[in-house]
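Here is a typical protein record:
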Amino acid sequence: MKRIQGYLFKYGNVLAALAITAATKSVAKACWFWFNQPKVPEGLNKFIKEDK
C-alpha cells in the first residue's frame, strides 16, 4: 500500500496534467457513439476554438 501511495505522491501532478490536457483536447469533439455523450463542465467551454 505504501508503494502505491509513493507513486501517487510522486507522479500525481503528472497525472493531473494529463487529465486536464485530455479534457481540453476532447471538448470540441463528439463521441463516436450517439448514446454516450457526457455532459461537459462549464469551465471547459473557454477552451473551444471557434471557426472563423
